[in-house]
Amino acid sequence: MFNKLTGTLLNTASSFSIVSAVEKIKWIFICFNLVYVVLEVSVFSFLAEAVGRLMLSMLLMLIAFSYQCRWCFDASRNVLIQFHGFKLGGGSIYSLQQQDVDYSIIKNIELKEVHNTYKVILHVKESQQAQFPEPISISLKVKQHKLPALVQQCRKELMSQGINVVGQFDSVSRKDWPTFSSVPLDQDTVKAFIGIKLFNDPIKLQYPVTLFMLPLPRQYFHQVWASSYISFMAALFILYSSQNIVAATVVALFGVAVSAVRRKLICDKHYTQGISTPNEIVISENSLVFPRVYFEDKQVRQIEKSAIKSINIEWNWYKAGDGDSIRRQYRRPFVFRVNIDVSNGESITLAGQAFDSNKFVIALSQLGYSATLTQIPKIAAVWRFYILIPMAIALLGMTGFGLFSLYIRYLV
């Protein structure tokens, strides 16, 4: 019974549904809430607070249960219903996205593995491609040993309704994304790049540039960090002379704060030269507008889409967690640089950390810009280690000094 409720393919008397991987996440939330409700009932008291917690948990479970992201093939109406929202029984509570596709305009349904994700892709007939310029797809979450049975059932159900099915999640119809390579920016690579998106956010068109995060010329390096050098030496002297860890930490952090303020002032002076103008990248269907901070002549550039020779996005995964298993790691894409070559020979390099570069990649894809995603073997957000490594060394030093002090006091 539970498998029939939570499965990927659901059958009723007049319809056949394909449940997405996004929807199946709700069962994890429901199970945790169910465990909480059982524990709460076992020690239940009639206090208003206990009753309120129990009612809230049951309400959250009901909301999660009503969440749906699926395709429903309605044989009685010959219509494919793409539904994303909240529904109980046959009634829709709130719809995030709903679209009906008549069987008469469907060319075929393709079963394809795209970047290690099983996808069911809808292709419409050539005469309807103005209405559906991009293929529509839904991602599945299926265990490997259940895949052949799922493919067989899916093909059987769809073909019984007169819909042509091609592909079967095999190596022939597979689309891979090799590690540390370049791939064209398209709908599939954007979805693999960004991951799961529960809501269809509007395309972001303006991207403010944070001057503080722009790279500075090398001649400013020691000017920025001079206060940190002095504060670290003072902190070491305090730690050596008085063993006052709190005072040493305060002095060191004060020096870092002064360096941060110093960097901001230098960035503002270097990139704006005292002229206050909007610093934002603007993207549209026909052109890209770049602020004056990216150019030596301090003039705003507007680059037409037709004048762009290539766009290369250099990126790698930002990872946090233990072990090599992806399940035990938090991963998100980190863009290092966006390199744009223009037909007049000019090259523009955008530092990814200075603006919302991940959404900029999505906008490039949605607005039809030809670009390439290049994964490079470079550590994302390397500044983390400049903070974590000194902290680890300081912690080890303090632990060693404490053990040595105990040894001197009690054993010598």
Keywords summarizing the entry:
single chain; alpha+beta; five-stranded mixed beta sheet; 10 helices; 28% strand; extended
The SSE order reads: HEEHHHEEEEEEHEEHEHHEEEEEEHEH
Quaternary organisation? single chain
Q: State the major sheet.
A: 5 strands, antiparallel
Strand pairing plus helix content: what structural class?
Answer: alpha+beta
> Number of helical runs?
10
Q: What percentage of amino acids are in beta strands?
A: 25-35%
Strand order of the largest sheet: 1-2-3-4-5
Find the count of extended strands (DSSP E, 2+ residues). Answer: 18
Can you tell me about this structure?
The protein has 412 residues and is an alpha+beta fold. Helix content is 38%, strand content 28%. The protein is built from 10 helices and 18 strands. It has helices at residues 2-6, 21-24, 26-42, 48-66, 147-160, 187-194, 221-242, 245-272, 357-366, 383-411; strands spanning 9-11, 15-19, 67-74, 79-88, 91-102, 106-114, 117-124, 136-140, 165-166, 182-184, 206-208, 280-283, 287-290, 301-304, 308-321, 329-342, 347-351, 372-375. The strands form 4 sheets. Strands 1-2-3-4-5 form a 5-stranded antiparallel beta sheet. A 5-stranded mixed beta sheet has the order 10-18-15-16-17. Helix 3 packs antiparallel against helix 4 and helix 7 (221-242) runs antiparallel to helix 8.
